[in-house]
């Protein structure tokens, strides 16, 4: 299991922590809130990393190509 440095998504918070690497990232990530912000503001962290708009478009094109081949 790989771990990576996470920085809190809240811009006014300077917390960082080690957490599981779900994206095979090469540099620190910033898509989760720290535990303190979750408790203080009631934020909820995602179970999996968000998909970028570009990645969604690529997946859509791949699906349409697969359907055309059928």
Strand percent estimate: 15-25%
SSE string: EEEHH
Q: List low-confidence stretches.
A: none
Mean pLDDT value: 88
Distance separating the two termini: 38 Å
- Compute the number of strand runs: 3
| Radius of gyration, CA atoms, in whole angstroms | 16 Å
Biggest sheet character: 3 strands, mixed
Number of helices: 2
Indicate the overall shape: elongated
Helix-residue proportion? 25-40%
Please provide a written account of the structure.
The protein contains two helices and three strands; from the N terminus they run βββαα. With 70 residues, it is an alpha+beta fold. A three-stranded mixed sheet has the order 2-1-3, with no helix packed on it. β1 (3-8) and β2 (16-20) form a beta hairpin. The model has no long low-confidence stretch (mean pLDDT 88).
The gist of it:
The chain has 70 residues and is of the alpha+beta class.
List keywords for this structure.
single chain, 70 residues, alpha+beta, 3-stranded mixed beta sheet, 2 helices, 34% helix, 21% strand
SSE blueprint:
Layout: E1 3-8, E2 16-20, E3 29-32, H1 35-41, H2 53-69
Parallel strand pairs: 1-3
Antiparallel strand pairs: 1-2
């Amino acid at each position: 299991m790989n771990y990576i440095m996470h920085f809190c998504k809240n811009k006014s918070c300077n917390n960082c922590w080690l957490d599981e690497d779900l994206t095979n990232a090469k540099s620190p990530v910033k898509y989760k809130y720290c535990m303190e912000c979750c408790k203080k503001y009631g934020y909820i962290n995602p179970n999996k990393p968000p998909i970028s708009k570009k990645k969604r478009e690529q997946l859509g094109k791949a699906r349409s190509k697969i359907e055309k081949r059928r």
